[in-house]
Amino acid sequence: MKVLVVGGGGREHAIVWSISRSPRVDQVLCTPGNPGIAELAECVQAAGGSPAAIAELAESRQVDLVVIGPEAYLEAGVVDELMERGIRAFGPTQASARIETDKAFAKRLMEAKGIPTGSYREFDNPEDAKAYLRSLSPPMVIKPIGLTAGKGVTVAGSLKEAEQAVDLVMGARAFGDAGSRVIVEEYLTGEEATVLAFCDGKRVVPMVPSQDHKAAYDGDTGPNTGGMGAYSPVPIVDEDMQRRVYEDILVPAVEALAELGTPFVGVLYAGLMIGPDGPKVIEFNSRFGDPEAQVVLPRLRTDLVDVMEACIDGELDRVTLEWRDESALCVVMASGGYPGAYQTGREISGLERVKELDDVIVFHAGTAARDERVVTAGGRVLAVTALGTTLREAAERAYEAVHAIQFERAHYRTDIGHRAFEKQN
Ligand code: AMP
Ligand code: GLY
User: Are residues 226 and 311 in the same domain?
Assistant: First the structure.
């Protein structure tokens, strides 16, 4: 069969990598893709990346399955467009993706179902938001209502910082219409973790837990990013915690979306804070995490295409997920300056050498091809994943590869996995 993957980052490289291992797949296409993906798939342009352009590409190339990586395409309704034309698509419709694209909708859904999450208030006017903030004590959490590529949330240590965030989001509209309304949320304490789950509209099958590192610098300091590294498994999300996440969070969320007449098909991402009272939801997303996919998919033994098709058919009970025992750890190499301003077009060296390392996969995130060379083309440039018998071994291998790769002003965290290692000591 022929599969088209939509997107061009590290997560999509991991999806393409996993799909291309399926014996059922003859050809993988990817739009727009990137130079790393181009080693496994044919990269094609869909003019403008609109739902119609993607559907036309899928039709003209007669693909059997379309898999959507990034949330922006889901919000634009690409799955709805594909379904209307009778093309099989893995991912939620625009309406069911609201669990990610509209934070107020997600909060109301959680409230209605009693899903554990922080308390919150929603505001459509900056003065009301600030008045409410003045009644709180720091830290305070301010979130634009819409999509911001993981960069919109402010955890403010002072009232002044919180008010500035409101001005930036609602006044200056730093994130466009995503900031037309804001949520002020209770500050949650504990350790963060991600549980991704396959959903077929009614059933939920969780994947192995992972942990992202959202802060830009070591020791979880600095601004929030899309994610600087990840690992799996996660000691704090043991079997008992996985059961609670399944029963108290994933099942009721999927139930709620089905009851609203917008059943969720695809990957539901539960971003969690594991605190003293158990897991609480920080956010839901409607797709694989990036870089979580880069550690979870390399551990999946089951044919990803079988699982995706079972989701689309509403028959997730026909597959059983099997996982490799090995641990996986991923280090993101970013452009100096990210998540702020950064330069692109820097030549990347060492990629060929790293191919010789065992159990190392370099997923391309923001790269481009220029005169036979690979250059940087984004904030997050590469996601370097390694597998190992233990998490420590995976970390050693991943950093060995990172040290062999060079580009000017490369920035990466040196402490990916630190929470797991601290527990082992
Ligand atoms: P989000 O985009 O909602 O995942 O938020 C980005 C990051 O902000 C999260 O990964 C957390 O580190 C932090 N964060 C968001 N909401 C809260 C909260 N209610 N309490 C504490 N930290 C939070
Ligand atoms: N790693 C965070 C996200 O994918 O949203």
Answer: yes
- Tens of pLDDT, residue by residue over 237-259, are 999 999 999 999 999 999 999 99
Q: What's phi and psi for 288, nearest 5 deg?
A: -60, 150
pLDDT of residue 47: 87
Whose CA is closest to atom 5 on ligand 2?
Answer: 289
Total Cβ atoms within 10 A of residue 49: 19
pLDDT of 286 > 80? The answer is yes
State the total domains in the chain: 4
Residue at a domain's end among 157, 185, 213: 185
Alpha carbons 128 and 319: distance in angstroms, whole number: 50
> CA–CA separation, 24 vs 40, rounded Å?
15
- Asked whether the beta carbons of 199 and 207 are under 8 A apart, the reply is no
Give pLDDT, residue 223. Answer: 87
Q: Is 150 in the pocket of ligand 1 (CB under 6 A)?
A: yes
- Would you say residue 108 lies in a domain? no
Judged on CB neighbours under 10 Å (0-12, 13-18, 19+), 247 is exposed
Assign 339 a pLDDT band (cuts: 50, 70, 90): very high
Q: Do 302 and 199 fall into the same domain?
A: yes
Residue-wise pLDDT tens digits, 291-328: 999 999 999 999 999 999 999 999 999 999 999 999 99
- On whether residue 357 sits in a domain, the answer given is yes
Pocket test for ligand 2, best of 194, 232, 287, 294 (most atoms within 8 A of CB): 194
Q: Return the pLDDT at 425.
A: 58
Domain boundary among 294, 318, 342: 318
Integer angstrom CA distances of residue 136 from 121, 161, 379, 405: 12, 13, 35, 46
| Ligand 2 atom with the shortest distance to the CA of 227 | 1
More confident residue, 148 or 259: 259
- The pair of structure tokens assigned to 217 is 């610098």
For residue 306, how far is its CA from the centre of ligand 1 (angstroms)? 33
Name the band, by pLDDT with cuts 50, 70 and 90, for residue 68: very high
CB-CB contact of 76 with 51 (8 Å): yes
Whether 7 is in the pocket of ligand 2, judged by its Cβ within 6 Å, is: no
